[in-house]
Amino acid sequence: MTAALQVRNLSAEYSTSTGVVRAVHDVSFELRRGETLGLIGESGCGKTTIGQALLNNLEAPGRIAGGQVMLGDIDLLSLSGKALRRTRWDRIAMVPQSAMHALNPVYRVGDQIAEAIELHTSATHQAALARARELLDMVGVDPGRARDYPHQFSGGMRQRVAIAMALSCEPEVLICDEATTGLDVLTEAQVIGALRDMQRAFELSIIMISHDLHMIGRVSDRIAIMYAGRLVEVAPAEDVRTDPRHPYTQGLLSAVPALTAEPQHLEPIPGLVPDLRHLPPGCRFAPRCPFAIDECDHDIPPLIETVPGAQGDRRLVACIRDGDLVGKQSA
Ligand SMILES: Nc1ncnc2c1ncn2[C@@H]1O[C@H](COP(=O)(O)OP(=O)(O)OP(=O)(O)O)[C@@H](O)[C@H]1O
Ligand SMILES: [Mg+2]
User: Fold this and answer.
1) Is the CB of 46 under 6 A from ligand 1?
2) Which protein residue has the closest C-alpha to ligand 1 atom 4?
């Protein structure tokens, strides 16, 4: 089965007065058809940059430094102008990190969604508006509210509107950047429920970007874990939870409380994320890693296949100590 999206050796950077921020470095992964892939990592590790790079939508001072983003046999990074604009909404769309960014404060939400439809299809304004109301209904917003302005919606409702907007041209791939961050847990569950409904209705493949490990663990089929601009592990969600392989993934799991009634010992990861302008030559996690050896400081470890997990699905890890540590890592 072909992947919905195949990302190969993607790099992206920002040129600043204090140096080049290497926000995404040599990232490769596939998004399978119909799956939800979680992309997780600490603030500033490059998640939003990946999302924007996947849409070939990085704004200056950001730029793609290399790689391919294959949507079927089209490399999105080779497109420009009209072809790019059409592909962006028709085939791949993004719900940006703040829903407010997706919505123009001075237009009624129904008109905004309708406008996106009109721009990308031959629909008349009336037909586009009718479709906008239908989409709002599908994400759980009363279609009567199509005449309201963004500021008249609560945070959760605004997220739903932003999702309806992103789905206005029925893309195959949806990237949700922190779609539920800042929402209370019940509202979060409702927004996720709306996304699931839309995933079924549109046969969507979704990339869910978040720093919330619990949420990502619940909604994702597979999870890609990012550290300082690189992927360190990609595995089925269940394997990440029960048998994380990369020391950073293990650190992340030990640093967040599990949703149980039991009191737990939480262990924050010591040290700080590296400055993306001055990266260490080898593994970027080595300075904080309890298992690091001298070799870890020499070369960047490639993301390669490790032992299969309980489900037998492929999983990848970027750690030269992976083989040595099997069965020895702290639980
Ligand atoms: N416009 C910009 N100019 C310069 N540097 C930038 C710019 N946008 C992002 N960066 C830098 O690129 C790196 C990655 O940022 P990015 O926003 O992709 O991270 P993130 O993982 O999405 O973080 P968060 O969880 O806080 O949303 C950070 O070091 C950030 O400071
Ligand atoms: Mg972000």
Assistant:
1) yes
2) 14
Q: Using an 8 Å Cβ cutoff, are 229 and 284 in contact? A: yes
Q: What is the DSSP string of 130-156?
A: HHHHHHHHHTT--GGGGGS-GGGS-HH
Q: What are the pLDDT digits (tens) for 79-135? A: 999 899 889 989 999 999 887 778 999 999 999 999 999 988 899 999 999 999 999
Which domain does 291 fall in, by range? Answer: 226-325
* Same domain, residue pair 123 and 269: no
- Residue 64 and residue 77 in contact, taking contact as beta carbons nearer than 8 Å: yes
Whole-number Å distance, alpha carbon 11 to ligand 1 midpoint, is: 14
Q: Give yes or no for residue 191 CB within 6 A of ligand 1.
A: no
pLDDT tens per residue across span 277-315 = 999 899 999 999 999 999 999 999 999 999 888 878 999
Residues lying with their CB under 5 A of ligand 2, a single-atom ion: 47-48, 97
Q: Is pTM, for the whole model, over 0.90?
A: yes
What residues form DSSP beta bridges with 95? 176
CA atoms of 247 and 270, how far apart (whole Å): 12
Choose one of 220, 243, 266: the last residue of a domain. 220
Cβ(102) – ligand 1 distance below 6 Å = no
Compute the distance between CA of residue 117 and CA of residue 132 in angstroms, rounded to an integer. Answer: 8
Burial 8-25 (b: 16+ CB within 10 A, else e): bebbbbbeeeeeebbbbb
Nearest CA to ligand 1 atom 27: 43
Residue with tokens 């990074």: 77
- Domain-located, residue 301: yes
Q: How far is CA 192 from CA 5, 11, 75, 139, 178, in A?
A: 22, 30, 30, 10, 11
